[in-house]
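Priority: medium. Attachment 1 of 2:
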């Protein structure tokens, strides 16, 4: 440091001029603040600058042009500006974020969030379904910040994780230079040099973290698959940027500038990070105002949760008046993300109601819309902690419209708005499915279609503890009752007319049951039964019940009605047919044949392709 005795002004000027890079080759090629320079020489130069500054402030200045310190101080400041820049540049390195920066950004984030709601893990799922599903719905911490270098290169205070960007010795040199530049009236130059170099360092770290320079327009022109990847990368990068990069830049500014002048540390900090901070948050802002579509909801919620988690840290790092715009931008983006999530949910409900496909799915199986919607709301339930806070009102059903479903919300009194929204989505899904069922020409297939789809809804609710908790057992019982009623309606539509052939009425002569059996009537009855069963067997073998348990239950129910009735009818009237000519033309099935044939039902495979071959 400077010696107690002041340097003579002339000596001080000579020292300054010796390091004038415009006049000396040696001065141009060598830096004063260099590891090869003797520390005493550095201190001597600083002492010479101090002496020139004192001379300028002295009232007894010489008028001699050659000894005028004003021109000398300009040379000194130009040199110190170069030295300041060189020290900063020589310590421009990319940061190594703490190892735990990739930890979960919110306690509500779960591994399930990475599930693709377009896909399904059911045994009957296939690629064609996935392709159809994807195109169904379309619609237009408080913490203190150190002010001086610490002995450790890493410090954690709450969620803020500061690191030493520049070694303490270099920080001390920078502070010495900044003090002298600012006291000589070169504040603007000091801030500009500092901001320029450190902003380049921030840009270097942005590149390493994958933060791209994209305008809001650039972001909105990207397809969603690209944006999903960029959102995941942004969430990771934003944590590092706010909690480590920006916080450490703020700390460095305080280490160098705090106490030198009024709010100079904050001015340098904003000069360094304001542009990068705006660049960082512009991405999230672009997502928040982009066109809404169902597939965007979950990434928007991920962004919302990440930003919500970062807001306290943003408030700490950007706590000054001059950085208020950054705090406001972050808060406004959070609000817009919340509004976007609410809007997407509302528009999703309308899209489910209006989904226009009219081509019946083959075999009455599960409609792609049902898979899509149920996988979607299952994933919604994984975000219930966030959505409970965002969804605060019930669905709006508007005035009564016979073309829209009706729902008594009073029955759901006490349930949170999010749960009511999910139930409402299931209601409008069923309403849409009822409309689609009318496109089947066969009433039996229409009932089977409803049974399959409502059963799938029930299984999805039962399979998700979070969804089942929100939907509730009372409504789940209603859904269960609905698919069982559809199963009953199917059996009536198909088998009542078949079993009608096995009645006794009409087989006896005019004397009633006391009369003999009319063989011609009996033959016609067997022929009618054979024809009807053959048609049902041929038709319903290619119908499909994807759930194996449901398929088996319905087959058992059919067998429990069909086989006893046929066994009884055959037992009463077999002898009348066998006593006549060509009985094989009328009694084509044994009870065992019917039992085997029922096993062909609802496999989605034509009878001719079944491994069980029968002669007809």
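Attachment 2 of 2:
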């Amino acid at each position: 440091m400077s010696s107690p005795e002041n340097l003579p002004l002339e000596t001080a000027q000579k020292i300054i001029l010796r390091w004038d890079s415009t006049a000396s080759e040696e001065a141009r090629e060598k830096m004063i603040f260099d590891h090869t320079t003797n520390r005493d020489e550095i201190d001597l130069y600083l002492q010479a600058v101090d002496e020139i500054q004192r001379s300028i402030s002295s009232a007894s200045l010489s008028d001699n042009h050659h000894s005028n310190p004003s021109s000398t101080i300009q040379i000194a400041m130009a040199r110190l500006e170069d030295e300041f820049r060189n020290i900063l540049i020589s310590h421009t390195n990319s940061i190594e974020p703490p190892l735990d920066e990739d930890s979960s950004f919110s306690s509500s984030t779960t591994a399930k969030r990475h599930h693709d709601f377009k896909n399904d893990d059911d045994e009957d799922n296939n690629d064609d379904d996935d392709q159809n599903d994807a195109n169904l719905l379309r619609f237009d911490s408080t913490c203190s910040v150190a002010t001086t270098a610490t002995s450790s290169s890493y410090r954690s205070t709450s969620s803020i994780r500061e690191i030493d960007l520049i070694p303490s010795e270099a920080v001390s040199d920078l502070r010495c230079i900044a003090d002298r530049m600012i006291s000589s009236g070169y504040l603007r130059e000091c801030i500009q040099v500092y901001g320029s170099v450190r902003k380049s360092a921030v840009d270097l770290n942005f590149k390493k973290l994958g933060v791209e320079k994209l305008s809001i327009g650039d972001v909105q022109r990207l397809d969603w698959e690209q944006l999903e990847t960029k959102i995941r990368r942004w969430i990771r990068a934003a944590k590092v940027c706010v909690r480590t990069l920006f916080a450490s830049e703020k700390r460095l500014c305080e280490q160098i500038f705090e106490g030198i002048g009024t709010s100079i540390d904050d001015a340098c900090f904003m000069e360094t990070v304001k542009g990068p901070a705006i660049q960082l948050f512009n991405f999230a802002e672009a997502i928040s105002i982009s066109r809404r579509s169902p597939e965007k909801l979950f990434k928007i919620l991920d962004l919302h949760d990440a930003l919500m988690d970062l807001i306290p840290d943003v408030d700490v790092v950007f706590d000054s008046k001059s950085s208020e715009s950054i705090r406001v931008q972050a808060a406004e983006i959070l609000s817009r993300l919340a509004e976007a999530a609410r809007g997407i949910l509302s528009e999703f409900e309308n899209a489910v109601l209006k989904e226009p496909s009219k081509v019946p799915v083959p075999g009455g199986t599960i409609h792609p819309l049902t898979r899509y919607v149920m996988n979607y709301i299952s994933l919604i339930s994984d975000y219930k902690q966030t959505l409970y806070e965002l969804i605060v009102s019930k669905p709006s059903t508007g005035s009564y419209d016979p073309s829209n479903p009706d729902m008594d919300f009073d029955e759901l009194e006490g349930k949170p708005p999010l749960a009511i929204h999910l139930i409402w989505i299931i209601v409008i899904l069923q309403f849409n499915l009822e409309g689609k069922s009318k496109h089947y020409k066969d009433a039996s297939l229409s009932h089977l279609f409803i049974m399959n789809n409502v059963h799938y809804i029930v299984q999805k609710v039962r399979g998700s503890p979070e969804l089942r908790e929100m939907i509730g057992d009372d409504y789940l019982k209603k859904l269960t009752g609905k698919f069982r009623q559809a199963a009953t309606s199917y059996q009536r539509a198909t088998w009542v007319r078949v079993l009608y052939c096995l009645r006794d009425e009409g087989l006896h002569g005019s004397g009633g049951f006391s009369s003999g059996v009319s063989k011609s009537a009996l033959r016609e009855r067997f022929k009618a039964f054979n024809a009807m069963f053959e048609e049902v067997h041929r038709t319903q073998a290619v119908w499909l019940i994807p759930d194996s348990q449901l398929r088996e239950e319905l087959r058992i129910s059919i067998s429990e009605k069909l086989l006893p009735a046929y066994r009884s009818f055959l037992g009463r009237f077999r002898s009348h047919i066998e006593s006549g000519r060509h009985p094989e033309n009328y009694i084509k099935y044994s009870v065992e044949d019917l039992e085997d044939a029922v096993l062909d039902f609802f496999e989605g495979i034509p009878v001719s392709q079944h491994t069980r071959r029968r002669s007809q």
